[in-house]
Amino acid sequence: MENTFSKILLAVDETEASNTALVQACNYAAIFKSELTVLLVSKGTSSAFDDAKKRIKDFTSSSGIVVELAERKGKFYDEVSKFEKKGDFSLIVLGSRDKKGFKLFWSSSDVFKVIDTSTCPVLSVKANSPDFRMAHIVLPLADSNKTRQKVPYCVEIAEHFGSTIHILGISNGTGAETENKVKSYIRQTENYLAERNLNYVIETSFGNKVSDGIMNYAKKVNAGLVVIMTDTESEGLFMDSYSQKLVYKSATPILSIHSRDTRVAGQAGY
């Protein structure tokens, strides 16, 4: 995968989470030597981001990162979506609001709308995300053919940051067919990582809530990232619950990848 994350879009609104997202975006830009564009979206006056612009310029200049600033007024999702599609970005970074309680009203969320319609991976970051650290990345593998398509992205990131990849074979099912399928994907992924001399560990979890299992494991190993597919990874589970609950409740940053991403097309078998 050449030129991974060569153009990064940081979309900023007026939430506290945007400050944490700025740190994440700058770290990725520095490691991948990316072009960084910051899009400031406000419903208010043109002066709403005066402090934010100064903070962004101060932070990026101290990090040696060249940044381009753009401003739009309107609805966050609408403006980010239009800007992303015109700019041919390879990564979007968003600050995700902390959600108290979990209810399936995701269609009203700007963050999930961006994730759902983007043409590139989206990194969502909470205001309460831990300080930036990438020593450990969690790679969940479930019982769908698409689950492996995210592996090349995970490998790219691990190679750049020197991370250990935690392969987490996971499903809410407990049947022999499900477990054998997940363990087969684990073996294939293990070989793929070993060929690239990457550090990895393997863990499995069956018969438990997938989203809770991933969040708890990520916290346990102090992960700096969880990599997921936005498409159904565990049949009847992922689309409306698993991915969305992780985005809204996980303190660990979540990288969401679409199977329609042309850079991962055909990667299911590596």
List its traits.
single chain; globular; Rossmann fold; 23% strand; 10 strands; 2 domains; 270 residues; 8 helices; ten-stranded mixed beta sheet; alpha/beta; 38% helix
Description:
- The chain is α/β, with parallel strands linked by helices and about 270 residues long.
- It has 2 domains: about 5-125, Rossmann fold (3-Layer(aba) Sandwich); about 135-270, HUPs (Rossmann fold, 3-Layer(aba) Sandwich).
- The protein has 8 helices and 10 strands.
- It has helices at about 15-30, 50-60, 75-85, 110-115, 150-160, 175-195, 210-220, 240-250; strands spanning about 5-10, 35-40, 65-75, 90-95, 120-125, 135-140, 165-170, 200-205, 225-230, 255.
- A 10-stranded mixed beta sheet has the order 3-2-1-4-5-10-9-6-7-8, with helices on both faces.
- Strand 1 (about 5-10), helix 1 (about 15-30) and strand 2 (about 35-40) form a beta-alpha-beta unit.
- Helix 3 (about 75-85) runs parallel beside helix 4 and helix 7 (about 210-220) runs parallel beside helix 8 (about 240-250).
- The protein starts with 6 loop residues before the first strand and ends in a 13-residue tail after the last strand.
Average residue pLDDT: 83
CATH class membership of the largest domain: Alpha Beta
Tell me the number of helical segments per DSSP (H or I, 4 or more residues long). Answer: 8
What's the alpha carbon Rg, rounded to whole Å?
18 Å
CATH superfamily of the largest domain: HUPs
Quickly give the structural class.
alpha/beta
